[in-house]
C-alpha cells in the first residue's frame, strides 16, 4: 500500500512538470515555471480529497506523508541549482516577482489574521468558598 503513495506522488510530479512547462511557454520563457511547487500542491489537494472521501488507507497515507516531507529538500536543492546572478542581470523581472511574492504573502497573512474570531475576553468566574452554603459553616 505504501507504493500507492509513491505512485500518487509520481502522478502529481508528472502533472506538475507538465503544467509548469505550459506555464513557462505561456509566459514566453523556455523553462519550467513552478512545476515542483505545482506538484506539491497537487499532492496536498489529492491527499485531502482522498481523506475526505475515505479512499486513503493508512499505509498509503504514510507513503504520501513521507514523500510530502521529502519534497521540501527537493525544492531547496532545485532552487540552489538556479543561477540568480544571471536572472538578476536578465532584467528586473526577478526582483519585481520577489517583491510581489513577499507583498502577496504579507497581504494573505493579514487577511487570515483578520478573519480569525476573537477569543472571549470575559474572565471565567469561579465561586468563592464563602458563597458555598455547605462550606459556610466551616468558617
TrEMBL record:
Positions of region (Disordered): 120-139
Residue stretches spanning the membrane: 7-27, 33-50, 62-81, 93-112
Keywords: Membrane, Transmembrane, Transmembrane helix
Superkingdom classification of source: Bacteria
Cited Pfam families: MadL (PF03817)
InterPro entries, per the entry: Maln_transptMadL
Record's keyword annotation contains Transmembrane helix: yes
Alphabetical list of NCBIfam families matching this protein: malonate_madL
Protein name: Malonate transporter subunit MadL
